[in-house]
């Protein structure tokens, strides 16, 4: 249950000398109401193939549309949802929205897999597997319509359980991506132990790689390991033509980033995808 104390703990008390850099304070109760009250919306960012720039998939990224019209970015409220027991509800809502969108797109002839981000906290309860399977079936979709991206922002306490749940998700037919690879706790060990199908190289090693020898070295080594392990290698944060050149040279399969497109509301994404036409024209 969400307590008044928990809410108060999030509020900024007195002058905060770090105010300029502090994340937006989010009230837990408002977030809870926002999740159940339909205030979450998804923006969509394409993943395109390096070889021919055709659309290979799309990542759904959550935003919170507050009553006053402000659009709150996920980094400002996902950690709050994780800390206050709201992350399962949030993920369920994101799944519901993303799968409904995927089904509409499929109906309209746009059959690309939609990627959803899972928090490590979602993988503490084995019931998550059944819930995702049911949500996909309820949307009239096959498991290959969904990619599950997992970021490990801190060391998981119950790695054996997480490992088992990921194995069951993989067995159910979902693609599994290790997100932000190379940062946090997304490590080589995880790559070896967990049944991932996709490796997303963090933008820290992508943006500016052409002008930075150490970034380029990590980019190339990560792409090489991913390909050797048979994973689809995605470069995140490709911001310009130089970045594109660096990730192409490193052997990445897919590209995501501002150079291709920013995350967009569904209607805008449809225009973007439609404008490119069925043969990329
Ligand atoms: P992520 O999954 O690694 O998503 C990629 C982030 O990089 C997105 O930020 C995207 O807007 C941003 N990005 C894409 N291309 C570029 C680029 O070329 N340059 C730069 N500088 N940034 C780029 P966003 O949308 O703010 O999301 C931040 C993080 O929040 C995500 O990182 C993900 O970890 C988390 N997140 C987003 N949606 C969800 C969700 O539904 N559930 C959970 N648990 N986490 C989510
Ligand atoms: Mg992601
Ligand atoms: Mg990422
Ligand atoms: Mg991230």
UniProtKB/TrEMBL annotation:
Which keywords label this protein? Phosphoprotein
Any GO molecular function: cyclic-guanylate-specific phosphodiesterase activity
Biological processes per GO annotation:
phosphorelay signal transduction system
Q: Does the keyword Kinase apply?
A: no
- EAL domain spans which residues? 24-277
Report what the protein is called. EAL domain-containing protein (Putative c-di-GMP-specific phosphodiesterase class I)
> Which organism is the protein's source?
Inmirania thermothiophila
> According to the entry, what is the taxonomic lineage of the organism?
Bacteria, Pseudomonadati, Pseudomonadota, Gammaproteobacteria, Chromatiales
Intact protein stretch covered?
118 to 398 of 398
